[in-house]
Fold these 4 entries.
Entry 1:
Amino acid sequence: MTVIELWGRISEAGKLEVDLPSGLPPGEVKVMIEVPIENQEASKLPWEERPWTEEEIRELLTFRPAESGAEIVAMLTETDGWWKDLNITDSVAWVQELRRKSRERRKW
């Protein structure tokens, strides 16, 4: 399937006016109409229903790397860590205990 994007206009009489490029073969086509909402009309809608602007879409699709490994480690060492809330003093012993409990649960 070949997709051709064209700009058109809906007349006062309700007719769609489009200039087609030459060389298109005759036959059935699927017509999709996207009607832009004017800024004033869009501003009347609740923000959840407002259409995305090209700028917003471009912003959302822009890749921004997360913090570097060094920044993540620094962030974790700045706080006491979530393990302190669980009274974990030895991380190796804690993991070994979790594994032991998991093995016990899987036994018949």
Entry 2:
Amino acid sequence: MNHSKYPSTRPNKHDDDIITAVAMAIAKRLNHGGSGNEDDMAEGIAEAIKDNPGADGYELARKLDDNGWIEVDFSMCEELDGVFGEMMGIVREKTKEWVGANGIKPKNNLGDLVEITQGGRQYNGEIIQIYADQAEYVVNVPDLGHIKDGLGTHGCIIKFEDMHELSADPKDFSLATQ
């Protein structure tokens, strides 16, 4: 079900096409000119990723070994350990395409005071950065311990479609200074 106000769904790491692309890329690297069937290997890798979201390389390799797809060795565990990073890279690329295809533009501006939901609670914050190509804002929320300068957490990354209008009267709204 698409709850988004945009015509299509934002890409995410659980999308079949993203998992398949990562699995095929890994199968090609693991096979590196060998006689193994890359399509079969990719199918096994994709299945392991879907069945074990968030698993590290060792856990994925064990799942593949348990299912009889391939024999596990250390280099395979290392290769599979990069699955999440590779998936997120593809998600970023596909999100950029999605933003362009849907003509998505930020509704809010830098400095706007907004309301966000984190951990089931509502917080007021200030937009301090906009990632237009990813349709995301960075919202600084002092109540969550965010800082404006220096080392530390500067804000929450919020998708454009998850942004709330400020519910309080702006004249009553203030952010603690950092």
Entry 3:
Amino acid sequence: MSGRCSGITRDGTRCARSADGPNGLCWLHDPTRSEERRRAASKAGKSKPSKEIQALKVRLEDLAADVTDGSVEPKVGAVVNQIINTRVRLMEAERKIRETQELERRLEELEYALTQKTR
């Protein structure tokens, strides 16, 4: 079945998305897909800037201050900075993996919707 979703949005208007299932609802309004939406929302919540990034920023600021005031040797500060940079690169790799997984999930949903429309 194709056409406009028969679901109602939070502001009380009719949903403008395409209905991709046999029940006349889009992915957001289809009650049979609530678990998928919950998982997607959980993943999205994890993709927000983390507390770990904030902690690393504070650590770098403290390190810079410690090197400047002489309480940490510049060579030691450079090594700590390299370790922090390595952690940042790992975090970026994790973000890219999550992003790829999300895109794969969305592609699967689009493929599913397409197969429903061609039936």
Entry 4:
Amino acid sequence: MEREWTFDLEFEVAQVRCRFLRQGKDILEYTVQLELWHEQIWNPVIRYDNAHGFCHYDTIHPDGTQDKTSIYRGDANTNFTWAIQEIRANWKAHCSRYIAEVKS
């Protein structure tokens, strides 16, 4: 089963895009991405996923470059849930970092 959805953190300011591929109760693949509405488009700011065979997050910069950092909080189910909670708790800081980089 595959599912994708978005939810607003602040209407027309920031949203989270979630996707997973699940077999039974086990998540096989996931993506949790924070997006910021800037210059009339949704821009990815940080993305948690398990692509490339390991759980990690990508810090995404306005110029399109990315910094990849490994994470491990348990299995993919645990990492998926943790990523959503982390973004909910820290989205303003992530967005502030992104905007500061736009201005520099």
